[in-house]
Amino acid sequence: MTNYDLANLIFPNVKDTSYYEELYPKRNLKEGAMVTRFAPSPTGFVHIGSLYTSFSNITLANQTGGVVFLRIEDTDQKREVENGIEGIIKDFENLNIHFDEDPIKGGQYGPYIQSERRDIYQSYAKKLISEGKAYPCFATEEELKSLREMQELNKERIGYYGNWAKYRNLKVDEAIAKIKNNEPYIIRLKSMGDFNNKIVLDDCIKGKIEMPENDMDIVIIKSDGLPTYHFAHAVDDHLMHTTHVIRGDEWVSSYPIHKQLFEVLGFEEPRYAHLAPLTIKEGTTVRKLSKRKDKESAISFYHKLGVPNEVIKLYVATINNSNFEEWYINNPDKTIEDYQFTFDKMPIGGSLFDLEKLMSISKVYFSKLSADDLYNRTLEYTKEYDQEFYDLIKDDPVYLTSLLNIERNIERPRMDISSLSDVKKEFWYMFDPLFDKVDKPYQDIKYDYDVAFIKDYFLNIYCEDDNEEQWFDKIKAFASQKGFAINRKDYKEDPTKYLGTIADFCSIIRVMLTTSNMSPNMYDLLKIYGKDRLLKRIDCFLASL
């Protein structure tokens, strides 16, 4: 009996590898075009880390005229969560992220779900067995446990390799007899590597990394007939003609295995680029951002806040290339698609995730939107997340749009909105149903005089038809008559002469009307209020004293 007989017994009905080589021909792309992939496991939601990885793959493929595809790696079905595949695809749709090929739209190189490619992996495993490069291993859990204990006792490296690999040199006849006797087994690679030899990973980001050659007889086909990640990765990236594997740097240590698999299978090896992890500061320590521990790692966290997908991508871009932010600031008329991302600008070490920085980017983003656009986005957001505010703004778009337009179309626009949920936080006091139903949280203002004269100003001086210059001139004149210094310098020279400055006078009005000493341009707010509402607000404030 030969290795071919053994291979045919294990995989009797699979097609020859030549069938798949013809089925998946080389892609017809221009020279230099990258073929990349994002290959998640269906174990949960899309998070910032997976967005970072997919963003890197997508941008580099797109800007080189290449192809990027989504491949679901679900061969470890014990870890798979219910509706995990559908959840990943839906998350990417919600993020407005699109792949050239994926499980839904398909493509010439599918299926794009690994569990649906079982026959392909078995075909290549059969080839390796027939060539004596792989073998069935019948080691039980008890045998493997005993092996580890012996290695620990002898202070040897832990693993299934060399003389410790009990079944690697099992005669073909014995292996066939065990299979016919229905003894359970898996398929292992018969590694010819030497741990004392060194190999070099020429990483696109990290540069040259030296590490020991693989000598482990790794599992390539599990007892359920599905491949391990390592084996499936090699077969798929060969047949799908991946040119660059861009992935997290937790996979650096797996490179010796992957290099060896490509060699024994006779495949051309892709280039590897290992992305630095996203980290977070926790007290005095820095650790990897966790999708289980850190709420800000979930994309849904930003959706609930009302942070646009575009902002999340902009932040990811600033992490991805060190000079992107400066370029983006200096090119306000450009988009992410206009920037050329390169491996040499990607961080080698960990990148600290900075939520404050993300929200700062969001403020700049919102400041550049038109008031109409921001209104429409707010309407859509509140319909899902804030029914009360939605009901207040849906029938009168002009009112909120007018508020959003304050100090917007100027050289240095206001940057008080970092998320769509901030719209309500910034303007709640402009809506009487919200203002009337709460105890007024008036911000403290320092004064030791009767402020009832403010009502006199609105009854007798304030005119809705005044332009901003006329309005301010009248305010100064009225405040001066009441004992306020028009010039701050005069007030500083002798504060005892005055009740305060013109700024103090305006602060009182601002707090009366908005409850806060911080608000958009007061002249614009007064125009939107209307005189009758202004007088009601004044009475409300005076009654609270």
In a nutshell, what does this entry contain?
By secondary structure, this protein is mainly α. The protein folds into four domains: 3-13 and 120-275, HUPs (Rossmann fold, 3-Layer(aba) Sandwich); 280-367, Orthogonal Bundle (Glutamyl-tRNA Synthetase, domain 2), CATH 1.10.1160.10; 369-434, no CATH class; 439-545, Arc Repressor Mutant, subunit A (Orthogonal Bundle).
Which key features would you list for this structure?
single chain, 545 residues, mainly alpha, Rossmann fold, Glutamyl-tRNA Synthetase, domain 2, 3-stranded mixed beta sheet, 24 helices, 14 strands
Description:
This protein is mainly alpha-helical. It has 4 domains: 3-13 and 120-275, Rossmann fold (3-Layer(aba) Sandwich), CATH 3.40.50; 280-367, Orthogonal Bundle (Glutamyl-tRNA Synthetase, domain 2); 369-434, no CATH class; 439-545, Orthogonal Bundle (Arc Repressor Mutant, subunit A). Helix content is 45%, strand content 10%. It has 24 helices and 14 strands. The chain has helices at residues 3-10, 17-23, 48-63, 84-94, 118-130, 141-153, 172-180, 229-239, 255-265, 299-305, 309-320, 324-330, 355-367, 371-385, 387-393, 397-404, 421-427, 432-436, 453-460, 468-481, 488-493, 502-514, 522-529, 531-544, and strands spanning 35-38, 67-70, 134-137, 186-189, 198-203, 207-212, 219-221, 244-248, 271-275, 278-282, 285-288, 351-352, 484-485, 500-501. The strands form 6 sheets. Strands 3-4-7 form a 3-stranded antiparallel sheet. The chain has a 3-stranded mixed sheet with strand order 11-10-12, with no helix packed on it. Strands 1-2 form a two-stranded parallel ribbon. β1 (35-38), α3 (48-63) and β2 form a beta-alpha-beta unit. α3 (48-63) packs across α11. The longest helix is centred in the first third of the chain and has 16 residues, at 48-63. The model has no long low-confidence stretch (mean pLDDT 93).
